[in-house]
């Protein structure tokens, strides 16, 4: 992927103002071909309860991630309430080769992902259209 395309995609991600926002979910689909990251959205400095950001990594060649399972002890992520979700610290896109880009994602709590994909798509979506795992913890 060309450097200017990566910069444009990085700008779109940065426009989500993701820093310190909660990650509502991370989904790895189709045997790792797609990865979807759902990021809390803000509207006029207040949490947007209606919409959120969806950052999709398409045609993934490689997916590598580390979690905080060793330091979390016996507490399971699936039991998290919304106020316990990880927050996003960094999303960095880098050149990989002429067809792919590398993304590094750092979440608070020592969770790190490295994704090599053909494309990254950023969209604002309705939260009501998704059944986030933490909704059942209310």
Quick rundown:
The protein has 138 residues and is mainly beta. It has helices at 3-14, 69-72, and strands spanning 23-29, 34-43, 46-66, 88-95, 101-107, 111-126.
Helix/strand/pairing category:
mainly beta
* Helix and strand element order: HEEEHEEE
* Backbone CA Rg: 15 Å
Which blocks of ≥5 consecutive residues have pLDDT under 50? none
Distance between the termini: 43 Å
Strand order of the largest sheet: 1-2-3-6-5-4
* % residues in beta strands: over 45%
Net shape: globular
Helix content: 10-25%
Q: Mind summarizing the main beta sheet?
A: 6 strands, antiparallel
Mean pLDDT: 90
Number of helices: 2
Seen as an oligomer or otherwise, the chain set is single chain
List keywords for this structure.
6-stranded antiparallel sheet; 138 residues; globular; mainly beta; single chain; 2 helices
How do the strands and helices of this protein lay out in sequence?
Elements: H1 3-14, E1 23-29, E2 34-43, E3 46-66, H2 69-72, E4 88-95, E5 101-107, E6 111-126
Antiparallel strand pairs: 1-2, 2-3, 3-6, 4-5, 5-6
Q: In words, what does this structure look like?
A:
The protein has 138 residues and is mainly beta. It has two helices and six strands. It has helices at 3-14, 69-72, and strands spanning 23-29, 34-43, 46-66, 88-95, 101-107, 111-126. Strands 1-2-3-6-5-4 form a six-stranded antiparallel sheet. β4 and β5 (101-107) form a beta hairpin. The protein is globular and about 40 Å long. The model has no long low-confidence stretch (mean pLDDT 90).
């Amino acid at each position: 992927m060309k450097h200017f395309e990566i910069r444009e995609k990085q700008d779109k991600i940065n426009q989500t103002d993701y820093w310190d926002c909660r990650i509502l979910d991370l989904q790895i689909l189709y045997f790792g071909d797609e990865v979807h990251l759902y990021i809390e959205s803000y509207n006029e400095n207040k949490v947007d309860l209606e919409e959120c950001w969806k950052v999709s990594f398409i045609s993934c060649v490689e997916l590598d991630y580390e979690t905080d399972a060793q330091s979390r002890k016996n507490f399971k992520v699936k039991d998290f309430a919304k106020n316990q979700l990880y927050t996003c610290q960094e999303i960095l896109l880098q050149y990989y080769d002429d067809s792919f880009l590398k993304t590094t994602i750092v979440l608070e709590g020592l969770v790190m992902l490295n994704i090599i994909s053909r494309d990254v798509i950023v969209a604002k979506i309705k939260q009501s259209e998704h059944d986030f795992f933490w909704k059942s913890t209310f």
